[in-house]
Amino acid sequence: MSTVNSAGDAGLDPRVQAVFDDIRATRGTDFINNFWRYLAFDPALLESTWAEVNRVMATPSGLDPLTKEMIYIAVSVANGCGYCVHSHTGAARAKGMTAAQHAELLTIVGLAAKTNHLVTALQVPVDAVFDQDAASRS
Fold this sequence. Notes:
Layout: H1 14-27, H2 34-39, H3 43-58, H4 65-79, H5 82-94, H6 99-122, H7 132-137
Helix pairs in contact: 1-3, 4-5, 4-6
């Protein structure tokens, strides 16, 4: 159950309409997913969030688009965001993620969760070689 109402397409605030138009143009689709429709309750938050998502996820950078989506999936799993897991798994598939890559990603996520928990439980100290401050003092 949502805490705010979803924005339809009729009678949108002009700022919301501008963001929705930009999402459609950037993604090459008429589809506006629920995240953006529910975030539209606050036009300023919608604008700033879309600007950041567009900058990080849609702007060419050192990471290819599929890698970005797969990282987003992993973080979404770790954060327990079912909506984001579904949304970014769909986006990764659209960018070419294969079933084998998805399986490998989930294997890595599971392994990282396990070893992170073990390191935390054991309170393993960081090796000096991994500590940039220690390395620069040597």
